[in-house]
Amino acid sequence: MPLDPDLEGFLELAEMGRLSGKSQPMHALSVNQARQEFELSSQILDPSPPASLTITTLHIPTRDGAKIEARLYRSAHHVQPSQPSILYFHGGGYVVGSLDSHDSICRRLALSGRQAVLAPAYRLAPEHPFPTAVNDALDCANWLAREAHTLNLDPDNVSVAGDSAGATLATVLAISAVQAPEHLALKPKTQLLFYPVADTQRTRPSHLRYAEGYLLESETLQWFYRHYTPDVEQRGDWRTSPLLANNLGPLAPAYVSLAEYDPLYDEGLEYAQLLRDTGTDVTLLTQRGLTHDFLRMSGISADIGGIYAAVEGWLEVHTA
Question: Are 159 and 87 spatial neighbours (Cβ–Cβ below 8 Å)?
Fold first, then answer.
């Protein structure tokens, strides 16, 4: 399917900015510059997210004594007792991204009131390379399992979710819940995986097909990986490359949503097939005409509202 016409226009403007020298690809920037540019992009991609929510700032302790900020999103109009929730990890290649950059996603996921959304600000590389993000994700999940009742959340009805690198953190929790339950008190009800990073070791045809010009660039992926896993052997760890996980059995039901025009597309398909082959209930969708990061694009494409509605409908069935 051709690119979404509104998204295509946005990408053409971005390319004009690059050709004129007004902008550069992320991998040509310093880490601080890249973070600033990524934050600014949120104001363009989704400038008017829903406002009618209650947002509470929390602080979650980690195993090394640090505390990381988190936000709990709830509909201002409908909060049932012992509410189901989504533990959501933002994308950004483990290097960029924040609670602010993905605020609109969390708002839209929580808007119906059927579930709350807890979004932690796990620590980023290169200041905090692998496995800090993984450990932070595990610590946040265990904290949620302990504190759910005090937050009026149901500890037995938590979906783990994320986009891009955040989706990879969600896969780590879903796998750990089955393979290492002694390290994870939370048992995910479902997993929501949006354009996940599934293999940091190998390149695939989609990395070449969509290497440039489709928002996320293949060279930027390698820039992320160099910061997060400076030791290349770490890229063979299943916690960075879940396609390499061994002895997988059935996991929590998975909703896997991929972008057609994305360097990560092929590995996302492979990971969905791996889950199916090991007995996991998988719903796989390809969002035609869209690129990586589509969840943040409600201000660009009219199709994004339908994507959120489909997620909501799936959750209603699978978390009932």
Answer: yes
CA dihedral 104, 109, 115, 117 (to 10 degrees): -40
168 three-state secondary structure? helix
* Closest residue by Cα to residue 163 from 66, 210, 96: 96
**What is the full per-residue pLDDT of the chain (320 aa) written as tens digits?**
899 999 999 999 888 877 676 789 999 999 999 999 999 999 999 999 999 999 999 999 999 999 999 999 999 876 678 999 999 999 999 999 999 999 999 999 999 999 999 999 999 999 999 999 999 999 999 999 999 999 999 999 999 999 999 999 999 999 999 999 999 999 999 999 999 999 999 999 999 999 999 999 999 999 999 999 999 999 999 999 999 999 999 999 999 999 999 999 999 999 999 999 999 999 999 999 999 999 999 999 999 999 999 999 999 999 98
What angle do helix axes 31-45 and 103-110 make, rounded to 10 degrees?
A: 40
Q: Could you give the C-alpha distances from 261 to 30, 126, 191, in angstroms and in order?
A: 26, 28, 23
pTM above the 0.90 mark? yes
Q: How many CA atoms lie within 13 A of 233 on its CB side?
A: 0
- Among residues 303, 319, 295, the alpha carbon closest in space to that of 102 is found at 295
Look up the CATH architecture of domain 25-318. Answer: 3-Layer(aba) Sandwich (3.40)
Tokens of 172: 């780590």
**Which residues have a catalytic role annotated?**
164
